[in-house]
Design a protein that fits this description.
The chain is an alpha+beta fold and about 110 residues long. It folds into 2 domains: about 45 residues, no CATH class; about 60 residues, Nuclear Transport Factor 2, Chain: A (Roll), CATH 3.10.450.160. Helices cover about 25% and strands about 15% of the residues. It has a 3-stranded antiparallel β-sheet, with no helix packed on it. β1 and β2 form a beta hairpin. It comes from Henriciella pelagia.
Length: about 110
């Protein structure tokens, strides 16, 4: 009787692990940095994304996007421009580089 109770308890504990939340990779989210380094991205160059309110580094601020309609991007307001970083488009303030909008996978 004790072995059956112990087996049932183990099944409950292990069953919870089986039904746990799927990993980020399974959900389609970004890979962990360790896994990104194993893919085609060179070591130390894991993909970085920026978000609204952050300043885009200066080295990316001049990669202007000229064909806005092709990528379904709206006309930027005065003092802003769209720039491309890999497969993402960022609407940035021209002088500060602060991101007003980010569009992921705009070029894929």
């Amino acid at each position: 009787m004790f072995k059956v109770g112990l087996s049932a308890a183990a099944a409950i504990v292990l069953g919870g692990a089986i039904h746990a939340d799927p990993t980020a990779q399974a959900r389609g989210d970004r890979l962990s940095p360790a896994h990104e380094k194993q893919s085609t991205i060179p070591p130390g160059q894991a993909k970085k994304t920026w978000h609204r309110g952050e300043a885009l580094p200066v080295r990316y601020r001049n990669a202007r996007i000229s064909d806005l309609k092709r990528h379904d991007l709206r006309q930027p307001p005065e003092g802003y421009r769209w720039v491309r970083v890999e497969d993402e488009a960022y609407l940035i303030h021209v002088t500060s580089g602060i991101i007003a909008e980010a569009v992921s996978s705009a070029f894929s």
